[in-house]
Amino acid sequence: MTNDYIIEVNHVSKQFEDGKYALDDVSLQVKKGEFVTILGPSGCGKTTLLRCIAGFQVASSGYILLKGEDVTSTPPYKRPVNTVFQKYALFPHLNVFDNVAFGLKMKKMEPETIVRKVKAALKMANLTGYEDREVDTLSGGQQQRVAIARAIVNEPEVLLLDEPLSALDLKMRHDMQIELKELHDQLGITFIYVTHDQEEALTLSDRVVVMSEGKIQQIGTPTDIYNEPQNCFVADFIGESNILSARMIKDKKVEFCGKVFDCIDEGFGENEPVDIVIRPEDIYVWDKAQEKRGQIVGQEDDDAEDRVPKGKFTRWYGEVQSCIFKGVHYEIRALTPDGYEFLIQDYHEYLPGTEIGMLVKPEDIQVMKKEHDIYNYFDGEIVKNGKVRFLGADWDVDEKQLESYNVGDEVRVGVKFRDVELQDYEEEGTLSGEVHFILYKGNHYHLTILTDDGDTLFVNTNDVWDDGDRVGVTIAPDHIYLMSREQQRQIEDEDRDE
Amino acid sequence: MSKLTDLVSARRTWAWPYVLFLVLFVVLPLLLIFYYAFSTPGGDFTIQNFVKFFHTSEAVNTLIYSMAIAFITTVICLLLGYPAAYIMAMAEFKTPQVMALLFILPMWINFLLRTIATVELFHMFGLPLGEGALLFGMCYDYLPFMIYPIYNTLQKMDRSLIEAAQDLGADKTNVFTKVILPLSVPGIYSGIVMVFMPTVSTFAIAELLTHNKITLFGSLIQRSFGEGGIAMWNYGAALSLIMLVIIAATSFFDQERDHDAQKGGLL
Fold it and tell me: Choosing among B94, B156, B161, B168, which should be mutated to test the A contact, i.e. which has the most A CBs within 10 A?
């Protein structure tokens, strides 16, 4: 089999002893010479993926090809890859020269060759003259360079970098980013770079792999990832964004904020609920007071007329809540009459209280498939005392609903996202869990709650919670709907036609 | 009144009991040893005590023999202790503390009792007491002192260093010889000193496990004071001083290493 992929990760899963998946069916192809960044929040599995490629961890299932050769269970010392570790992992008992020469000595190279190669690598890392220094006398940035030199001196096919810049201060990090990019161009080898810093990922890479919860959310060029996020997680994780629930009326027509907008997306079902993303810099704004007979007119010193694109675009209006100067632009928060909040970036200042008009070009509305809609559905069982058991807890249910069931019956349980109530104190809940992911959807927060048993629960709320908050979960008895699978399907269809 | 409060609150005030203790039980005895070692029973200055030692081949041989026994004990403890420490620190034990506890458990019992128990064990199994029993008893008593410092250094070692070595092409043998072993040297040195120092001066173990057939340097000193009567105190003091110098030499050697280790041990 010949192709230009140097690394192929095929359906790799990694399950830890506690049963949790660090990697869940991950597939990734990397071309020779590419700079690929694996991006995600901590605990998303990015480091595990890197360690599987390096050989420090063995995948539970799936396989990894390196240059077409299966290396899934090859020990790390036999792989043509080298790693730059997060905390450098320099050998404290060796000086700079011996640290860099370590790999070459393992290969039993001629001493003269070693000296020549080490000198070349140190030169590349701007460390000439540091050969005899003890590594602990070096600054963080210098140690980082030694770690890079120690890896590249072996001329690996692939260089793996595990958050290499995370321990450096901001300025040093920026300098090193540029150096790494230059190094990649000079060496022409494949770089696989793991980071949680989205800016770093967008700046450095040819392609970005966004990961969350052990799964790949999206693979694409930095511009793809930014402009066309495939789901709410990617949209929210990369850059600032306005994420709203919307409805696809038909091809190229989407409805949100009670208005119908033109867009460029097709292929969704009619009336299908979707999520949309609008980047704050893609919203055009103007002062509503300057608008005459539907024409957008600027002040004398303003060129609103030229700035705002002409044409039959849907406009909507709101009131400026806050306007903060951010250096290059102003960050404006505007509230629409029906309660949606928009984040806008503009070069002009609009004072709080100003009524503004807003407009977005069809191509700047990114439509995404909705992963989940209105209801949480669970498998449940009727238990004694008028309760139903689901998510590992017993819940009170409306007596009327129970009439058609007997104790021991299995049912589907539906609970609307909006009907799940969160309590400050875990003990007050029928169930306790942790706020796992927060998404602001313009007029409410969409939370993912991870219960202590590892189940997920979606909640829509207007209350403000923080990531990692411990909460108690309660649901009012009349908000728990018992149904059969058949009825569930009907409800889902009805929601669509609503 | 305020003077009293000042006195109580001053930190140096609280050091006085310790200073007193040190003077009474460390400095004074040391000075006495010096005085006795360099004087005749009559109180005149002399180096005769040392001359006597170096001219008594039995005494010199005992010193050499004691050091040899201590050396062999240390080597055996190192050979047994390093793998034990390594297994505890490296292997993915769910509860390495339990293993560490098991190693330290015998130390909860006074070593004299343990040694007497060892003697009984030898009797029970019909094994002869003597040099072999002595070495066994010494290793049994001092093995934890070897395991602990080594375990500590290995335990604290940054695991990513092992991964880095593997990543750079080192197989298991090379990971050990090129990274783990050099980095555990400070622990090895501490272990050696912790075992060698007490074993070179021991006497109770020797008396019990050899039925007084083997005399160690510690026993020689003990006899000089215990059986020799007041006339032998000067000679005993001289022997003590010689031992002190030897032990001081080993611990000085250790301090040198400690300094090095600190220099090299920081990441």
Answer: B168
